[in-house]
Write a structure and sequence with these properties.
- This protein has 252 residues and is α/β, with parallel strands linked by helices.
- 50% of the residues lie in helices and 10% in strands.
- It is built from twelve helices and six strands.
- It has a six-stranded parallel β-sheet.
- α11 links the parallel β5 and β6.
- The longest helix is centred in the middle third of the chain and has 18 residues.
- The protein is globular, with a radius of gyration of 18 Å.
- The chain starts with 8 loop residues before the first strand and ends with a helix.
- Bound molecules: magnesium ion.
- Magnesium ion (MG) binds next to loops.
Length: 252
């Protein structure tokens, strides 16, 4: 961290910002849907999915905000429901809202089972982006780091520890329906006595950034994560700067 950044406090999303977790999330999402529906087989690799299904699932990944959304991806694919953008995806979630708790529980059951039975494979399905361990170390050392994610914190700790990053639980904030990313960052502003411009919040999901933007913190869309052209256009329209991975490593 260079001197000019000394006052910066980094609030970072996890999936698609620190870790390229799409393979793990799609494997677990598929397995949770197989458990729910009795249709399709459980898998250990995304390569076990048909090419067409994998392509569609990869694209739908751009619209998720929480673990259970991965199960909705497979629900839509098996029902052959076409979801072309975030609006379609959110409408599909709303129309099937009664499944949310079931999907959430099954998703975490499958994740836990994979972690216990296939630990090495599970960790390999969650590769960290290069350069991230050093960056986290620099900000954590100064106590200017928060990881803000809907992923249950114990899994974040597993992945970071596997990559040699000693994790203080105080860095990790679990966002959920009753405590949003916006709530977390608003609390951080107060607790750490930070000016809004001192917090840099980086996420790959435009809707998370739009929810946090009114707090006045610096918001950036992670272009290396999971977002499509339409979402990046929305970001540009809403004056959300788009950060490349190279810029991220250079500027922070
Ligand atoms: Mg993300």
């Amino acid at each position: 961290m260079s001197n000019k950044n000394n006052r910066r406090f980094l609030a970072l999303d996890f999936d698609g910002v620190l870790v390229d977790s799409i393979q793990e999330c799609l494997v677990v999402g598929n397995n949770a849907y197989a458990a729910y529906s009795g249709k399709g087989a459980k898998i250990l690799s995304v390569d076990e999915l048909s090419h067409a299904m994998l392509q569609k699932a990869r694209h739908l990944r751009n619209y998720i905000r929480s673990g259970e959304d991965y199960v909705y991806i497979f629900h839509a694919l098996h029902k052959k429901i076409e979801l072309k953008d975030q609006i379609d995806f959110d409408a599909f979630l709303m129309a099937n809202t009664e499944l949310r708790t079931v999907f959430f529980n099954l998703f975490y059951l499958e994740r836990q089972s994979l972690l216990i039975r296939e630990r090495r494979l599970w960790l390999n399905l969650n590769p960290i982006y290069p350069g991230i361990p050093m960056l986290l170390y620099a900000y954590a050392k100064q106590d200017r780091l928060a990881i803000v994610s809907t992923k249950k914190s114990s899994y974040i700790i597993e992945i970071l520890q596997h990559n040699g990053i000693e994790v203080a639980p105080k860095w990790i904030f679990h966002a959920h329906e009753e405590y949003s990313k916006r709530d977390i960052i608003s609390d951080l502003l107060q607790q750490k006595k930070l000016a809004p411009c001192e917090i840099h919040f980086i996420d790959d999901q435009v809707s998370n950034l739009l929810a946090v933007q009114p707090l006045g913190v610096e918001c950036f869309l992670a272009a290396w994560g999971y977002n499509d052209d339409k979402q990046r256009q929305t970001a540009a329209r809403q004056k959300l700067p788009i950060l490349t991975f190279q810029e991220f490593l250079q500027n922070y």
